[in-house]
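Ops channel
N.P.: pipeline sanity check, posting one input/output pair.
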């Protein structure tokens, strides 16, 4: 025969505990209210303290994380008191992973862009050198053309100039 579920009993104790916490919270002056649900120093619900307060065994703490009907009760109260909900660390871890992945992709893109820029700069330098070389060749050829024209002009008027070769 299957064991009866412990969730209804846990839910009843949790609702009673949260009602007491809410009553204490509402009795505080509005401008100085402090959360009455146990919290961690970084402003999240302290699930272990809640579990202890309602008399759960250490092995039963997991129900406050895993069972939506239990965690949602605590999370509604936590939101009202300005605390991060149960599982906030998991949400932050997922967000951290997303940020880390985005940073990794940006770093990879930056490396590729840097490499492409370096290669483009090397290609530019090579092309500039080719242009300089071609300019020098062009000047040499223009000088040769001028020399040959002068020689041709001399031959046309009857002066023979021996080849320099």
């Amino acid at each position: 025969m299957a064991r009866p579920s412990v969730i209804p009993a846990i839910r009843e104790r949790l609702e009673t505990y949260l009602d007491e916490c809410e009553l204490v919270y509402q009795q505080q002056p509005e401008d100085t209210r402090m959360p009455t649900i146990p919290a961690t120093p970084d402003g999240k619900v302290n699930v272990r303290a809640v579990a202890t307060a309602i008399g759960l065994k250490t092995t039963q703490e997991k129900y406050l994380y895993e069972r939506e009907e239990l965690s949602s009760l605590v999370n509604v109260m936590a939101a009202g008191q300005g605390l991060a909900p149960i599982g906030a660390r998991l949400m932050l871890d997922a967000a951290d992973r997303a940020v880390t992945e985005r940073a990794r992709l940006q770093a990879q893109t930056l490396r590729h862009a840097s490499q492409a820029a370096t290669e483009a700069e090397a290609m530019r330098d090579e092309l500039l050198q080719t242009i300089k070389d071609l300019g020098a060749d062009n000047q040499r050829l223009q000088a040769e053309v001028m020399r040959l024209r002068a020689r041709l002009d001399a031959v046309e008027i009857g002066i023979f100039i021996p080849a320099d070769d």
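N.P.: looks fine end to end. The mean pLDDT is 86.
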